[in-house]
Amino acid sequence: MLEVKNLSAAYGQHPSLNDVSINVGSGEIVVILGANGAGKSTLLRAISGICEGKVSGSVTLSGDSLTGLSSDAIVEKGVALVPEGRGIFGDLTVKENLLLGAYPAGARETERENLERVLMQFPKLRERQGQIARTMSGGEQQMVAIGRAIMSAPEILMLDEPSLGLSPLLCKELFQNLTLVKDLGIGVLLVEQNAKQSLAIADRGYLLENTRVTHEDTAARLANDPAVQRAYLGAGSKTSARPSTRSTPLVEVTKSTKPTGNPTPRRSADPQIG
C-alpha cells in the first residue's frame, strides 16, 4: 500500500500542498479530483521525487519509506508515473519505448515476461511494435506511455490527466485499459479532469481544494454527492470549476531523442517518465 501522510509542498513562498494524507491499496483505483491549481500534479510529483519545490511529510510503500529518495530509487521501489502529455519518445519505435521502461534492476530480470504482459493487455501495441511512436494516435501513444510504466514492474501506477486531448471514444478505451491494469494487482492513483468516467472506474476518491484534501469517500458516493456533481460533474462530464491557469511551474528539458508531449525532467532511460 502507498501511504502519504501530511505531505506539504511549496514553491518559494507559495504553498501548493498542505498536510495532504492519502492511501492507495494494491489492485485499487483512487482518483484525485480538484480544480486547476489545487495541487494535484504537485502531489504526484512529490510522491515520485520530482517536485521542484520544497517538500515535507512522509511517503511509504508497503512500509518502506520513500521520503527523501531520488526519483530513480522511487521507481526501483515500485512507484511509476505517467506524466501529463505522456512524454513518450516520438522518434523511437513502440517496442523501444516499452523497453526503456525496464530500467530498474528488478524489472530487467523479468523484462521478457513484463513485455509479454503489456502486449497482452494492449493488443494494438503487439501489432505495432515496429511503428514509430509519433505516427500513432493520441490514444495509442497513451497506451505506449502506460505500457512503458508497467514495464518497470510497479506496485503503484500514477497517471496525470491521461485523457487530456483524447476524443470521447479514445477516453472510453483508456479507462477500460486502466481497469485491466487494476486487474494485474497494481494500485492506480489517477489525477483526471474527466470526473464522470474516472469515478465510474475508481474504488475511492479524494477532493483536493486549495492545496488541501477536503473530502474522501467511495467513488460511488462521490459521484452521487450533490456538491461533487455541481462542481465536477456538470457540463459534459468535464470539470466545471477549473480556472484557466495552474500554479505548478513546468520545467522544459532538452533530450537527444525528442519526446512528444511534455516529459518530466528525468534522464531519458528512466521509466518514470512514462
Task: Describe the SSE topology.
Elements: E1 2-11, E2 14-24, E3 29-33, H1 40-48, E4 54-61, E5 64-65, H2 71-77, E6 79-82, H3 94-100, H4 105-109, H5 111-121, H6 123-127, H7 138-150, E7 156-160, H8 168-183, E8 187-191, H9 195-201, E9 204-209, E10 212-218, H10 219-224, H11 226-232
Parallel strand pairs: 3-8, 3-9, 6-7, 7-8
Antiparallel strand pairs: 1-2, 1-4, 4-5, 9-10
Strand content: 15-25%
User: Could you give the order of the helices and strands?
Assistant: EEEHEEHEHHHHHEHEHEEHH
Main sheet makeup: 6 strands, mixed
Measured as a percent range, the helix fraction is 25-40%
Overall mean pLDDT: 85
How many β-strand stretches?
10
Low-confidence stretches: 235-274
Please describe what this structure looks like.
There is one protein chain. 34% of the residues lie in helices and 23% in strands. With 274 residues, it is α/β, with parallel strands linked by helices. The strands form two sheets. A six-stranded mixed β-sheet has the order 6-7-8-3-9-10, sandwiched between helices. It has a four-stranded antiparallel β-sheet with strand order 2-1-4-5, covered by helices on one side. Mean pLDDT is 85; it is low at 235-274.
